[in-house]
Design a protein that fits this description.
266 residues, mainly alpha, two-stranded antiparallel ribbon, 10 helices, 2 strands, 3% strand
């Protein structure tokens, strides 16, 4: 199977499951986000094992953040995440390692914040008024479309490297293709819907989602390059790991959440 067909097939196979959880929300979304957080965090800590992250502290904080978002909103999510610091302190105090405690704790907290809070914002987007379900589905589909268009555009017309020092395969031509596809997707999904976002605002929201998604992809590439690995894992066979698939979402979800608040509360 060609790289393009493989990429689309893996994403398309998981998209219905994600959209199902987004549609029904509540425990369905939590049941998807929590295991995804643990798997992605496991992959990150495995890549960064030389830094000796305090994995149990990270797992506990990330799970608490996602669960808090589901049970009590942003305040509970932040409170759940703060559990990472307490657990990291406890485990660092009783562990015996030659690694710097500062480095170990920083790696632990980075993972819990990056993945736990990022996926927690998926839950918060679902709870936005008046129709967070529609917004969340739009965010997920926009990221999928933008990623697919960027990959196709880069393969067909990519000439100018976007960030050669971080991800040599990314091109500006691919980014523009993804931006166009993603913005149009958001506009078609939200324009004239009774959620307080239409016209130019839907274009703006689409742009925010696509740019944040691209930054998330590049951020993970930067981390992997720094840690000297190609893929975060093998759970998706030749298509990388869970972190490789949620890297865009964990940036796009918080960006979409705050963009929607800004656009609907002014």
């Amino acid at each position: 199977m060609s790289p393009l067909l493989s990429r689309v097939a893996v994403i398309a196979a998981g998209l219905p499951l994600v959209l199902f959880a987004a549609y029904y929300g509540s425990w369905a979304l939590l049941a998807l986000a929590a295991p995804a957080a643990l798997l992605a965090l496991h992959e990150l800590y495995r890549m960064a094992r030389a830094l000796r992250p305090l994995v149990l502290a990270g797992y506990g904080g990330a799970l608490a953040a996602v669960l808090g978002a589901s049970l009590g909103g942003p305040e509970w999510m932040l409170g759940g995440f703060m559990l990472t610091l307490l657990l990291a302190f406890v485990f660092a105090a009783v562990s015996e390692t030659r690694q710097s405690t500062t480095v170990a704790v920083a790696t632990t907290v980075l993972g819990a914040a990056w993945i736990g809070l990022g996926l927690g914002f998926l839950v918060l987007v679902r709870e936005l008024e008046p129709d967070g379900r529609l917004v969340l589905i739009t965010v997920l589909v926009t990221v999928f479309v933008a990623d697919t268009f960027a990959f196709i555009g880069g393969r067909l017309a990519g000439r100018h490297k976007m960030a050669p020092g971080i991800s040599p395969g990314k091109t500006w031509e691919g980014f523009v293709a993804g931006l166009v596809g993603g913005v149009l997707t958001t506009y078609l999904a939200l324009n004239e819907e009774p959620i307080g976002i239409d016209g130019w605002e839907s274009f703006l929201l689409g742009g925010v989602i696509v740019v944040a998604s691209a930054c998330g992809d590049l951020f993970e590439s930067m981390v992997k390059r720094d840690l000297g690995v190609k893929d975060s894992g093998r759970v998706l066979l030749g298509h990388g790991g869970v972190l490789d698939r949620v890297d865009s979402i964990v940036f796009a979800a918080p960006a979409a959440y705050f963009a929607v608040l800004a656009l609907t509360q002014t």
